[in-house]
Amino acid sequence: MEERHKQLNKKFDHLVLGHMAGQGLANRLQCQGTKALNRTHSSERRSGVDGSITFVTVFTIYNTSLNDVDDRSNRVVVNASYNKFGRSMALLNVFINFIQLAMPQSKVIILTDPVSDLSVQRNRVSLYPIQGEYSRDKLMLQRIRSYITFLETRLQQLSQKPTDVIHYIFTDSDIAVVDDLGHVFRDHPNFHLALTFRNNKAQPLNSGFIAVKGTQEAMLRAKLFLQEVLKVYSTKYRNASRMLGDQLALAWVVMSKPHFDVRRFSKALAFSEDVGGTSVLFLPCSLYNWTPPEGAGQFHGLPLDVKVVHFKGSRKRLMLESWNFYSSYRDISDMLCLILGSGRTKYDF
């Protein structure tokens, strides 16, 4: 009985295509295996502003070298084997790969602990050390602190030497940008900060994608907004500091404001709202933070105009597999079919 239980819970070492939600629905990706029967609405014409966009993520590595291989932690992805360090670095590099594929003129800044062993030699990618507490139990809190520190530094630089406007997109490092995001800033000229939402009463906002316009006013308002989120996080949700606390704090800050209509989260349409003096643009997760199945709001398939795929939790292996698949076949739509069909596979690192 025990042996049978172990077999049922055994994680696959390869992807297994399963049922693909959204088949037969309009404006959803239709697949036959890993072959797309229709095409995603990827931008054939660039927005023209990706050179003024910088992606910012928090990432750190400790006390590990490429030669330290723990056989028990090794996992095979296609034809590659990774130890814990190599695995983390592979994910970071794939994160960068997707950005440079979709938005080749954009830059990436990695906020990291000054004592981290991290070294990244990539074009248009730079490290930005920020002192703080980067332990796993406090990383989500530190992430918000790092965002605030980064914005404070940029505001100071802007006040001393005005430069061309640079917009910032703060993201988790387990996302894949699969389309140009420049239109967010072009088509919505008046927001300060953008968040992604889903139809989930307990956790309607996800912190894995936060866009900030590069004007002085917008960065100041975004900094003040994140400071309020950090205060709520540190007081009301400190017991959830390892995970979810940031999302709960975001929701509290937004939904506690008078006259905010939470019913707007039930429709996957972008909208703007003044939240304590900050103009917040709300973007639907279904397009800007889509997660392979097993997440709320993802059961109706993959929209053809999806911009960002978020490989949360156990989906990180799928992120590496997806890039390997794309590298072999060079087709975003077919790669998205792989993601859609593999979303419920039980695998993990």
Brief overview, please?
With 349 residues, this protein is of the alpha/beta class.
Give the number of DSSP strands.
14
Q: Quickly give the structural class.
A: alpha/beta
CATH architectural type: Alpha-Beta Complex
Q: What is the quaternary state of this protein?
A: single chain
Number of domains: 1
Protein name: Nucleotide-diphospho-sugar transferase domain-containing protein
Organism: Vigna mungo (Black gram)
Features:
349 residues; alpha/beta; Nucleotide-diphospho-sugar transferase domain-containing protein; two-stranded antiparallel ribbon; Spore Coat Polysaccharide Biosynthesis Protein SpsA, Chain A; eight-stranded mixed sheet
Polypeptide structure, described:
The protein has nine helices and 14 strands. By secondary structure, it is an alpha/beta fold. The chain has one domain (36-342): Alpha-Beta Complex (Spore Coat Polysaccharide Biosynthesis Protein SpsA, Chain A), CATH 3.90.550.10. Strands 7-6-3-8-11-10-13-12 form an eight-stranded mixed sheet, sandwiched between helices. Strands 1-2 form a two-stranded antiparallel sheet. A hairpin with a 2-residue loop joins strand 12 and strand 13. It starts with a helix and ends in a 7-residue tail after the last helix. Residues 65-74 have low confidence and may be disordered.
